Amino acid sequence: MPRRLGQHVFGTCACVGPDFYAERGRRNGMFEELHRKMNRFWNADRTLSETDPEFIGIFSEFAYDTVVNEPGANDEKLDDHARCMAIIAAIIGSQGMDAFEMMLPISYHSGVTSVELKEIVYEATPLIGFAHTLPYLKRINDYLNVENVELPLAPQSAIGKQNRAKEGASLHRTLFGESADSDEEFRKMGAGHIDSWIRGDYLGAYFTRNGLSLQEREMIAFCLLMAQPDCANELRGHIMANLRVGNTAHFLIAVASQCLPYIGYPRAVNAVKTIAEVTHNDKQTV
C-alpha cells in the first residue's frame, strides 16, 4: 500500500488541511518526500507556497490529489514505480529540467533504480536527440554521486554489436507488424539508410538492452513522444506497439492522465485522441 502524501512538493498549502490529504492522498506515496527534499528548489530562503500560494494551491490540489485519485486516471499496472517512470519520461520529452530535478529524488526513493533512470535517458536519445538528453544524463550522474552510487553502473547490453541489425529487425516486426519489414517511402527518397538505422540503432542498440522490460520501454516511448510536438505519426506507431506488447488502451489513457499536469492539456488530449483513433482502426480491421 503506498504511503500517504502528507505534504506536497511546494510546501504545505493553506487552502487544504492535513486531514484532507490524509484521507485523499492514499495513492500519493511517490510525492511524500518532495516537501522535505525539494521544497526550496527555486528560492533558497522561501518556499513556493510562500511566494505563490494561490498558484501552488490550485496546482498541487489538482496534480497530487485530483489526478492521482481519479479512477479513470489509474490502472492496476500503474503503481508508483510505473507512474514515476512515466512522469520522468514525459518531463524529459517536454524538456522540463526544473521539474525533472524535483521528480528525480522522489522517483529514486519510490523504487525507480539507478539503472532504470539511466535507461530512460538512454532510450530517449534516439527519440529526442543527444543534444536534449545530455543535460539529463549529467543531472542523474550528479544525483547518483550524492547518493553514493558507484559509477559506471553494470553494463546492460544484452546482445553483441554484430547482432543489432538482426535483432532490431526482429523486434521491429514484433512491435510494428510484419508489414513493417521495409519502408518503401524511405527507399524511394534515397534514405533507406535511415530505415536501417531505426532497426539497427534505435531498436537494436537501445530496445534490446536489459534494465527495462519491453512493456516499460514502450510506455516510456509513448510518454516521450506524447510530450513533444510534431510527432503524431511516431506516437501513433508506438501506441500500436504498446498494444502489441500488452499495454492496454486503458493503461495508456491512465498514463497520459497522470502526465497531464506536467505536459499540459493539449498534448495529453492529443495523446488520448490518438489512442482512441488507433484502437478504433484496430477494431475495424479485425
From TrEMBL:
One MF annotation (Gene Ontology) recorded for this entry: peroxiredoxin activity
Signal peptide start and end residues: none
Pfam families: CMD
Domain spans labelled Carboxymuconolactone decarboxylase-like: 203-273
Gene3D superfamilies for the chain: AhpD-like
UniProt-listed InterPro entries: 4CMD/NDH-1_regulator, AhpD-like, CMD-like
Protein's name in the database: Carboxymuconolactone decarboxylase
Native source species: Bifidobacterium animalis subsp. animalis MCC 0483
